[in-house]
Design a protein that fits this description.
The protein is of the alpha+beta class. It has two helices and five strands. The protein has one domain. The chain has a five-stranded antiparallel beta sheet.
Length: 109
């Protein structure tokens, strides 16, 4: 499946989100259904060469950043924890995050 990334930074008025080191990123729909499928394209884990992880938050479709795990765990009732990301999708996501002016290594584990 082709991955079409249209990322945007999530704005929020919630006071605890102002403490985040990295803003949430809205990435739209996620395709992965099984625990180890690539969350972006849905490719099964046995077809993915190298897996990365994303911290999915806010009930899905959004990425939380590195270093904010404890704050998210305590305050985000929609914290979905970590999902797998295949290497080809990681490269696409890395570029899209850079285009937002953010550091990809703060989001892709």
């Amino acid at each position: 499946m082709a991955v079409n990334l249209k990322l945007k930074i999530v704005e929020s008025s919630e006071s605890w989100r102002k403490e985040l080191k990295n803003p949430y990123i809205d990435m739209g729909n996620m395709e992965g259904e099984a625990e180890n499928d690539c969350v972006l394209c849905g490719k099964p884990s046995n077809k993915v060469h190298h897996r990365y992880s994303l911290h999915i938050v806010d009930g899905g479709g959004r990425i939380g950043g590195r270093g904010d795990e404890e704050l998210i765990e305590m305050n985000d009732s929609g914290d979905m924890y970590w999902f797998s990301l295949g290497s080809s999708c990681a490269k696409k996501l890395e570029k899209a995050i850079k285009d937002l002016g953010l550091n990809p290594s703060s989001y892709i584990y």
